[in-house]
Amino acid sequence: MQRQAVLNSLWHSSFVRLTGPMFDKELRVASRQRRHYLLRFGYVALLTLFIAYVWLTVARIGSKGPAVVRVSRMPEAGKYIVTCVVWFQFIGGSFLTAVMLSGSISSEVRQRTLDALLVTPISGVQIVLGKLLSKMLQPILLLAVSLPLLTVVRVFGGVPWAYVASGLCITLSTMVFVGCLSVLLSVTNRQAHHVATTVIFWCLVLWGGVPLLLTVLSAAGYLNAAAIQTVLMTTNPFAVLLAQTSTMLAASTAGAAMSWRFHCLILLAAAAVVSIVAVWRVRRATLVSILARAGGGHASRSKARRETAGRRARTHARPWAPIRRVKGAPIVWKELCRPLFPTRLRAVVTVGVSVVAVAVMSAALVFARGPVGFAFFVLAQILQLLFIVRLAASAASAITREKEARTWPILLMTPLDNREIVRGKVVGVFRWNLCLLIPLCVLYLLGYVLSPPTAGDLIRLAVSVGSLVFGLAGSIVFLLGLGMYLSVRLKTTAAAVAATLGIYIAPKFFCCGGLSPLLFWSVRHAGPPGTQGPLGMLLIPLLLAVGIATVYGGLGWLFVRAATGRLRRNVFG
Amino acid sequence: MIETRKLSKNFGELVAVDNLDLNIEAGDIFGFIGPNGAGKTTTMRVLVTLLEPTSGAAFVDGLDVTKKGREVRRRVGYMPDFMGVYDDLKVFEYLEFFAAAFGIEYRKRKSIVDGVLELTDLESKRNTAVDSLSRGMQQRLGLARVLIHDPKVLILDEPASGLDPRARIEIRELLRELKKMGKTIMISSHILSELEEICDRVGIIEHGRLVFGGTLDEIRPHLGIHSKVRVQVLGDEQKAVELLAALPQVEQVEVVGDALSVTFREGETTDGVIARTLVNGGLDLVSLQPEQLKLDDAFLKLTKGIVH
Helices marked H in A298-433 — which ranges? Predict the structure, then answer.
């Protein structure tokens, strides 16, 4: 008993030493924030509704047959529910972690409290770990609250515990990695929404773009397929969870039973490396920030540091850029003034690498006579996800950014009325995101054009393209409206972005990706011509897409109106 | 030019402004003073249409701030206590953005921005990023922004806070310049000596209520403070005390260090009689100095310093 108490005390003291007072402070602050309680309640409510819906659907279908048939359907329902919940937690949790940790250090830099922290005996390790663990506690709690529901579902049968455990571990390790990356980027970037979109961009590149390229190259015979498979199964959480899900659905115990544990270890090790870099950079970044504020002079201790600070200050000043005159609506102009990339170098590298990767992939597929069109379509899917995240983040941060920078009252003091401000913000955000929307459309176009034409294909092509266009348009209007509304209602960018993405993703996910463009691809290529049934059957997805897009678009418009009405309420709240 | 009638603003249970009556004449510089949490900033925010009053009315240039918000904003330049800045803009771009927001035509903007930059002595910072400016420069930029649409009324919340003495003097000179241009200025500050030098009238607020409003000269009778002079004599100090205490105008004579503090009876302010009495009494008068009532003293006497 005494030994246990000593061990507990030792553990507690070592934990406190590791995280310092930062952890306690963050927990205390978080416990006073209503949004965390609302988030947990909303999440549990969503899961409960989803499980109830599936269960009722299964029960209703089965009610026509004998009881034994009804019971036999339950394991299928259990599998469906658990798979959906695990994947939702995996994707939603990763997004949420990226967003919630996006302002962890940058908020301290912006409020100039990091300077004060760094002159205390609190170490960089304590700052980074304190922030990381305390902020991650919220998404981890969301995972935890879903466990009782998953246990209930276990009663249905058909779901092995190993799958639930592996799903949770993969999700948790992915969240830790994403969280560490978010903290690292928030050390050097002052804008929370930039951090969130950059983290998601890198995750999409690492776990979407690179595997696609490697798969294409291996399919073309340039790389060893087994080696690629091994790499993916150790580094890519999507691939690992997909393998686990396939194994579970096939009711097979064979296959990658151990690989997910090894994968989790690899991901945690990578997270540790990223954390170490964040710890190393946190003091340096603060010094740079202080010196940049002081004009690059006063408190510098060495020439190198002065130069770094000066360079940093100049990065913000962009002296190479000429003065831009305000033309057209001032709010739109202001939104478009934001640089697409923090530095020129980063812009050149990102665009250059992307173009080269797409060119290599296309060349490999052309030489191997592979499905170039489909590859472009998958690539467009990855880009669409990034576009959606960026659009949601920029819409949700359009006004919270002003609140955080305390420029909001100044803007409201101009004679611009509410409608002008909101319209300017909406148009500005949309135009700012055209740099992704245009390549996205080009990729879709290439996907359609480069797929092999089949006889009698024109109608299916038209239906597929129409559904895609309507779906995308509905999503854009909805995200712009919802983001703007939440930006007006909420105080911080992280909360607004998380809520916007959550509200957008959750219904889509639980409706089995009802608006997913991959669905439209399957419409386009659903069997050989002549076997697809009457034209009416083909038009159903189009009508469905138009209907859903209309609902989404209408909701978006309503949100914009609500944002306009509430713009001047609680300006300082 | 600025008027409030029974203006109140509550935040839940907290009464930030309580039946406040203010009247500021056109062309005046009005100093708005009060302890932290007294309701100064809230009053200013109501006047500039950023907050809705709970009850009562507020008018700027005869316009009701709750009904004619847009028109009021055209007439008012507001500088908040903490001015946020846009990260990605240069000084010229920042000012031109606000010029555009105030509806100034494109072809006129450049000359207006240049003029405001010259007035606030920021021409050399034209091409500098706003967020890399020092605190003093940012305050100047705030003033430049406030002036961009040539408003009739300026409402400045702690414009000199955090500035070094030189910057404060420069801001004070700028305000004098603006007064000459006919602007009505409402200014809040904790540096009372500065307000004393530039304000025509002051308002002292505590717990959301105006405890005094008027000129500095009106404060003395308001507080029931009697005039005082400080006298230094060479020789028999005790004799001087006796001579002065015998005068009918004098209420009290105290020895304070090496000088005498003479308090007159209410309504008596003449100090010629002091000099005459001492000289006729055979004493050498070294100095005779009327004691000024400082705004700091008035502020301390009028307020209890209890914040909400």
Answer: 303-317, 330-337, 344-368, 372-405, 408-412, 418-432
